From TrEMBL:
<keyword id="KW-0489">Methyltransferase</keyword>
<dbReference type="GO" id="GO:0009307">
    <property type="term" value="P:DNA restriction-modification system"/>
</dbReference>
<keyword id="KW-0680">Restriction system</keyword>
<dbReference type="InterPro" id="IPR050750">
    <property type="entry name" value="C5-MTase"/>
</dbReference>
<dbReference type="InterPro" id="IPR018117">
    <property type="entry name" value="C5_DNA_meth_AS"/>
</dbReference>
<dbReference type="GO" id="GO:0032259">
    <property type="term" value="P:methylation"/>
</dbReference>
<keyword id="KW-0949">S-adenosyl-L-methionine</keyword>
<dbReference type="Pfam" id="PF00145">
    <property type="entry name" value="DNA_methylase"/>
</dbReference>
<comment type="similarity">
    <text>Belongs to the class I-like SAM-binding methyltransferase superfamily. C5-methyltransferase family.</text>
</comment>
<keyword id="KW-0808">Transferase</keyword>
<feature type="active site">
    <location>
        <position position="74"/>
    </location>
</feature>
<dbReference type="InterPro" id="IPR029063">
    <property type="entry name" value="SAM-dependent_MTases_sf"/>
</dbReference>
<dbReference type="GO" id="GO:0003886">
    <property type="term" value="F:DNA (cytosine-5-)-methyltransferase activity"/>
</dbReference>
<dbReference type="InterPro" id="IPR001525">
    <property type="entry name" value="C5_MeTfrase"/>
</dbReference>
<protein>
    <recommendedName>
        <fullName>Cytosine-specific methyltransferase</fullName>
        <ecNumber>2.1.1.37</ecNumber>
    </recommendedName>
</protein>
């Protein structure tokens, strides 16, 4: 039987893609307020409802699910958000807690910035304990799964006391790999041919090794390489080869760095470049989330 996901603060669905990779679970509903990510969700899951405003939800009227996922707003706990914590108007964790308390899923898989560990996380654990839930957590960098960027994030596996999810009961897909420093050992032949490898080395210099490794792990060369090799320069990482104005980051490249399928964000109709980059920047890197979930499930067996 296919497990179901209730996704809160869904973004573009990155954490849900991670859970699907490990467990084969499918979203039953979303709760995402922002218009741009909502368009992305509707594009990829047109039959799945989006309840939008978490602050007005009557969770007693929502279909029960096996798993609740959520990347609850990180601004209260991030440096960029000035770390106001629970005093921040954007502190929306209590709504996630209410959903867990009423819907009683088998477990919840949550994500936030690593800085949450030192600001507000003790309150989250206390709240979970108050409703009879336990939790395990881990921090993981995107670079540990081979991505060419750091992006350290906190992942939380929460569950009812005494009912910790077991990997063998839930995992239905191949394990997600944590690459770490082993990316250096990856054979780079076959990433995209000599022309692509040459272009990457010329353009990236000392970072070419990471770009090539991620291309192999992700299964696709970076969009900039494809565009340069085929002669299309309007979609390079920083725009035209000879830009007349300040170069701008190519959203397709940011999408690729996050380990998303090509076009997951950038081919959704009706999104501006700024909306694409904001959605990508706020999202979960699916391979990173999948590796974290696999790690947390395994830790319970040790």
């Amino acid at each position: 039987m296919t497990l179901t996901i209730g996704s809160i603060f869904s973004g573009y669905g990155g954490i849900d893609l991670a859970v699907e990779q490990i467990m084969g679970a499918k979203p039953a509903w979303f709760c995402e307020w922002d218009d741009a990510p909502s368009k992305i969700l509707a594009h990829h899951w047109p039959a799945v409802p989006n309840f939008r405003d978490v602050t007005t939800m009557d969770w007693g009227q929502v279909p029960k699910v096996d798993i609740i996922t959520g990347g609850y707003p990180c601004q209260p706990f991030s440096q960029a958000g000035h770390r106001k914590g629970t005093h921040d108007d954007r502190h929306l964790w209590p709504h996630v807690l209410t959903a867990i308390r009423i819907l009683r899923p088998r477990f919840a898989f949550l994500e936030n910035v690593a800085g949450h560990l030192t600001l507000g996380f003790d309150s989250v654990l206390a709240d979970l304990a108050e409703i009879g839930w336990d939790a395990q957590w881990a921090t993981l960098r995107a670079s540990e799964v081979g991505a060419p960027h750091h992006r350290e994030r906190l992942f939380i596996l929460a569950y009812p006391n005494g009912e910790r999810p077991q990997a063998e009961r839930f995992a239905s897909r191949p394990e997600a790999e944590v690459a770490g420093d082993h990316y250096r050992d990856i054979a780079l032949a076959g990433v995209g041919g000599d022309a692509i490898e040459y272009e990457i080395h010329c353009r990236w210099g000392d970072t070419a090794e990471r770009i090539l490794a991620w291309a192999l792990i992700h299964g696709a060369p970076p969009p900039v390489t494809e565009d340069v090799v085929t002669g299309y320069v309007d979609k390079e990482i920083f725009g035209s080869r000879f830009p007349e104005t300040k170069p701008l980051l190519n959203p397709a490249f940011a999408e690729w760095m996050m380990g998303l399928p090509a076009g997951w964000v950038t081919e959704v109709p009706g999104l501006t470049r700024q909306q694409q980059l904001k959605a990508i920047g706020n999202g979960v890197c699916p391979p990173q989330g999948a590796a974290a979930l696999q790690q947390l499930l395994k830790e319970g067996q040790e």
